[in-house]
Every structure is written in C-alpha cells, then in structure tokens.
Amino acid sequence: MKKFLSLILSSSLFLSACTQSKIPVSPTPTPIPREYALTDTDKPQVNLTPRSDGHELTLKISGIKPIFNKIEYELIYTASDAGLEIEKGVSGTAELKDIISGSFERKILLGTESCTNGCKYKYDAGVNGGTLNLTLNTQDDQVAAMVMPFSLTLVKSKGFTITWKQ
Questions:
Q1: Beta strands in the chain (DSSP E)
Q2: Cα separation of 79 and 59, whole Å?
Q3: Which of 110, 97, 100 is nearest to 59 (CA)?
Q4: Which of 75, 99, 135, 164 has fewest C-beta within 10 Å?
Q5: What phi and psi values does residue 143 have, to the nearest 5 degrees?
Q6: How large a percentage of the chain has pLDDT more than 90?
C-alpha cells in the first residue's frame, strides 16, 4: 500500500511539473492614425486648371497650413478607349520640402508619356470628369481627407473648364 501511495504522489508531482507555465502576454497596440477634423480655415485652396487642349491638368494647392507636413493626391477619371470606358488614375505626394512655402503645383497628364527617343504622348480620350482625393497628414500623425468630384467640359469660347461638383 505504501508503494502504491508513493507511486501516486510521485506521479502527481511529476505530472504537475509538466503543465504549461502561464506567462502573461500584454497586447501591443497598433498605432492608428487619428482622423483630423478639417475646419474651413484649415482647408487649403485647391485649383485644377486644364490645358487648352484638355490633355493636361495643373493642380495647384495654396494656403497650406503649417500643421500639415505631407499631402497625397489621387486623381481618378474615366476615359474612353475603343468604345469602352476605363477608369484611370494619377497619384503623387508633396513632401514637407514641397509645401513648406504654403503652396505647391503639379502638372497631371491625362494619358501616357514615353521619352526614350524624344517624347511621345498618347492622350486619353473621352475624359469628362473624375474625382480628386487629397490626404493631408499632420505633424502629429493625424490624417484629414478631402474628396472633390469635378467635371471637365469643353466650352467653345473658353476651351476646357473644370467645375467642382457638390
């Protein structure tokens, strides 16, 4: 009986040592950029000006507040190719060095450019509008977004014009 009792005790001690030790694990939070609520005074002034033939747009953003250290832009538009509508886009970034003066300007080609032996262009046809998306990043890693739909129309006396949709 003593052997039986000692066998039970020794096996229970042995098996209790085999259990997993519980190491407390603390979750590491993932930093998520907080949304920055743009006020009317924080919003920069955005101009989108078409070239006279409508194949290139000039994006000019001015009145950029010093709290912003980077602006990302994305222009999405629909073009026609062989009777099919194709969604296309152009994107870019203006870093702090580009916007430190409070404004920046970019030329946006509505098409493709190849400059291996002299530049050749293939312009997108049937572009009549799209959406300009701006993401403004603050120095505190906050993010503000502006979504601006527009239409591109040909006015006989003026050439191409941009109208912002509300």
A1: 34-35, 45-50, 56-62, 68-81, 84-94, 103-109, 111-114, 120-123, 129-138, 142-155, 159-164
A2: 19
A3: 110
A4: 164
A5: -130, 135
A6: 66
- Segments of the chain with pLDDT less than 50: none
Look at residue 89 in the predicted model and tell me its pLDDT. 95
- The pLDDT assigned to 137 comes to 95
Q: Rounded to 5 degrees, what angle do the CA atoms 131, 132, 135 make?
A: 135
Contacts 24+ apart (CB under 8 A), 62-65: 62/102, 62/103, 63/102, 63/103, 64/99, 64/102, 64/103, 64/104
One-letter-per-residue 3-state SS of 133-164: EEEEEECCCEEEEEEEEEEEEEECCCEEEEEE
From CA 98, how far away is CA 108, in angstroms rounded? 16
147 with 131: CB under 8 angstroms? yes
DSSP three-state, residue 32: coil
Q: Out of 3.40.1000, 2.60.40, 3.30.43, 3.30.720, which CATH number does the structure's domain 34-164 have?
A: 2.60.40
What confidence score (pLDDT) does residue 8 get? 58
Distance CA 50, CA 59 (A): 9
